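Lay summary. Proteins are chains of building blocks that fold into shapes, and those shapes determine what they do. In this project we predict the shape from the chain. Here is one chain we studied, written as its sequence of building blocks.
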Amino acid sequence: MNSQELKNSFKITLLVIMFAVSTVFASSDTSRWQLGIVIALMIGGMIIGITYIVGMIMQTPMLSESAKIEAVQWGITAFIAITFIVFIVPFDEVIYRVAENVGFVAPLSGDTLEYSLATQQAAGEVINRNGGEIKNLTDSVEKRLQQLSEQSSFTGICNFWGVGFSVSFCSGLNGIQNGLMPVYHALNMVVGELYIFKMLIIEGGKIGLHTFLPIGLLLRCFSFTRKAGGIVITLGISLGIVLPLSVLFLDYIINDFYDTVLGTAPSQDLPYFYNSGFKACDERVTKWEQDIKEPMLNYSERDLMEKMAYAIVLRGVVLVVGALFIMLTFITSTAAMFGMPVDVQGLMRISM
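And here is the predicted shape, written in a compact code that computers can read:
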């Protein structure tokens, strides 16, 4: 076996080893994400050391020289990893405290920094709050639809000596009910979207820090997987750091928009369609002005419709799609630095 065949065989062996290590990282429940990075670097260093020893034993200068070059890259990778570990936790703490001071995140749990970053938990709490607000509004709309359905079915019947008639004056409320149904469906979609998005933040953050980041650092140690390692590192940082930071940033902008532009809190309740909370449509003595026109005007007010639209657009589109767009933009720009451009349009189609 000549030196080139030996080198190719060793590359295949390294790929098999790294695949096995990747499987271990993906299936294991490491107690700290920093430990996974250290283990990945140790494995990379051991593989390079074994490569150098094998090259010396078999008197293959090409293999030994290749191991020396990889050792330099391993040192650069280790420097990047150590710098990341040293600076990311204080940076994350600062971001979290800033977010906590504006009053929209919950206190940290005791083991937060062992399993994830503080911003991941903060972003999860932000999604919980937004989802709770939309869920309250959805329940309120559902309640009003039920009341409209009940009252629009009221029918008055008059019989006298076998001759009679029936009137359905309250059926005019059906028009309001039909107008609310698309809003109800849109709100339900936003609730489901936020629930899935929370899973992406929490589980994606764990995968990013515990799996993608160590695997990416390991792949970056070797020349034939260096570009792929850079992409995997980018994915890990995007899911573990960029995405939750984007959620906090956009949520702050949305809340500031509510405070400064709208001057009101997010709507969580759809008011009763009559001005009086005790009034109901009278199927026997129905008057247009007070029984039909009043609820139609109440549910066609511009302020009320704007609040409903803002709840759907800001919480369901700006927060979720905006955060995903920031993350994907970071992936594409960083991937280009590693010489492996990524099609952001394709990624956006997948995310949608």
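What the prediction tells us: The radius of gyration is 30 Å.
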